[in-house]
Write a structure and sequence with these properties.
By secondary structure, this protein is mainly α. Helices cover 78% and strands 0% of the residues. The longest helix is centred in the middle third of the chain and has 32 residues.
Length: 238
Amino acid sequence: MHIHEPLDRLVFSNAWRMKTPLDKLLLGGGLLLHASLLPPLPWAAVIFAIAAAAALGGARIPWRAWLRFLMPQMAFVAAAVLPVWWANGPWVAVGLALRAAAGAASLTLLSLTTPVPDLLQAARRAHVPAALVEVAFLAYRLIASVYELLGRLRLGLHLRLRGNKLRLTAVSISAGNLLVRSLRTAQRLEQGAALRGLGGYPLLAPRTHRSLPFRAGVVATQGALLASAWLLRGMFPW
């Protein structure tokens, strides 16, 4: 079941597909942590560049696809920064925007290289409470079901209109059908979860492989980033 075909295509075909979720969490989560802790100038820009290089050069994600998933986040950041600019001035707003952009690039790197089933299996092995993993799995399945249903409704609407302009009545009917069918799907998923119990869902994912050189490179890169920030703390105070 595919949530978003372009996203699934990238996640399951990138060069890091067979790396363990821990390897990619170490990179993406570490960059996100550094983006939250280090001063935004200039380290947020450095973190953004590292995440971009890892996604485009390491995982070999096409740059157009990377921008396609990153730009909506940047638009949200820009909208959120405007009130900060008005209230606290441009320097605070620019620092916040840089920090948010670095965090968004780190999360985009993780989301475009790690399938959701891999993350859920990793959470299960890490002894995350079964109820939390079950809720995450149900949300994943519900989003996938609603997205697939939306595709069928869009196709039916296009065939009914036969190339004519969209009509408010047809759109409202389709939206109503989407809401009703989504609620029915959610009820079926809830009933299945109640019958299945915690931890009883199937997750199919290929066996991944640990890469010690990859982990060493990640640790060395983030260590060098932290050391540089410490050595240059006089120029760029924390």
